[in-house]
Amino acid sequence: MYDWANSVYNLVISSAIFPMFYKGVTENNGRIVNINGNKQVIIEAFGSEWINTSLITYVMAIGFLVVAILSPILSGVADYIGNKKIFMRIFCYLGSFSCMALYFFNYQNIEIGFLFYLFALIGFWGSLVFYNAYLPEIAEKKVHDKISAQGFSMGYIGSVLLLLICLVLVLNPETFGFSGAGEASRFGFLLTGVWWFGFSHIFFFRIKEESKMKKITKQVLSSGFKELKVVYKEFMGIEKLKRFLPAFFMISTGVQTVMLVATYFAGKEIDWADEKSETSGLIISILLIQIVAILGALVMSKVSQKIGNIKSLQFIVFAWACIVIWAYFIHSPLEFYITAALVGLVMGSVQALSRSTYSKFLPETEDTSSYFSFYDVTEKIGIVVGLFLFGFLEQVTGDMRISIVAVGIFFVIAFILLSFVPKDKAEKSL
What we know:
Number of strands: 3
Strand order of the largest sheet: 1-2-3
CATH topology: Growth Hormone, Chain: A
Radius of gyration: 21 Å
CATH class: Mainly Alpha
CATH superfamily: MFS general substrate transporter like domains
Largest sheet: 3 strands, antiparallel
Shape: globular
Number of domains: 1
Strand content: under 5%
CATH architecture: Up-down Bundle
Number of helices: 15
């Protein structure tokens, strides 16, 4: 149910409504220039001029960097006081209320708007550090694939439901008393925050933890990094983890970068007939991704039981590499819809399988927060690298297509690294 609650951020804010809203705000207020034959929107913010999509990419990268730094500290505190839920709740509230605050996003106060966007991102991803750590505690290893996939599926269903509501509002703003699509979009941000905040309490009420009520000292605040060192040393003694984590780093770098910039890419590089067809087309393609992703996550969880997690991940990573190369050549809405369907098939499955594979490789321990903190830090640093590379290449070349193809390198490396992960014949699902 927490997947159901917070996945609306990932869809409405990160992938669908906000990117289109941001594009409209910056295009209406920025200036259009031609860079190496590509039309780009230049905006002024933080005392400098930026390509609009390049700047939002940098803001996202900074957010992930903050999460990567904070999560070891907070997971150490959570383990010390024996209560992950309180920190998960803090991040949940930070993210949900920041989504609501995006209602006030405008070009005149764009720096403040970026701050709310940054806090929403930190809230979403920060809460997942603690949420993911519950998986080994609530279920046996043999059902990790199934439960992980079910969680992602619930998230897709809930987020699609809210996105449909937002789609109706954005495409028919006057019917609901809004002055235009922009105001309807901002109301969608408000709905997203309320949805996230409200449904998250189903999780908070059901999960019970007792705080040890220990005093938090300076040593406790640094204990998270100390635990990461301990975990790292243990990793070096576990061959599967030592080989899997670099591959996971590359997978996260590629997958999350593509998903975070996909709508910005489509809005800039696809030849839509007009603004309304662009809005409806982008949302339809995102809905397509979510619906297909439900099937993809569930099917691949079954496939992994037959051929193993590592082989399944290799197949998915190979598919991702092909998709980003194909993306370089697409121009028409139909081509983008086909790409969206392919992305949907491999999006949920790669996330669910990566999480469950990691949980299976863990040694017997009650310190799940620290192990998943290491997992999350690896993921976030990968995203930071991917986003900075993507934004830098676009800012320098003025061509987003070059950036998207460059991401394909990470999938190629991930495929190779997965080949070196040992396979335990005694464990059929690995």
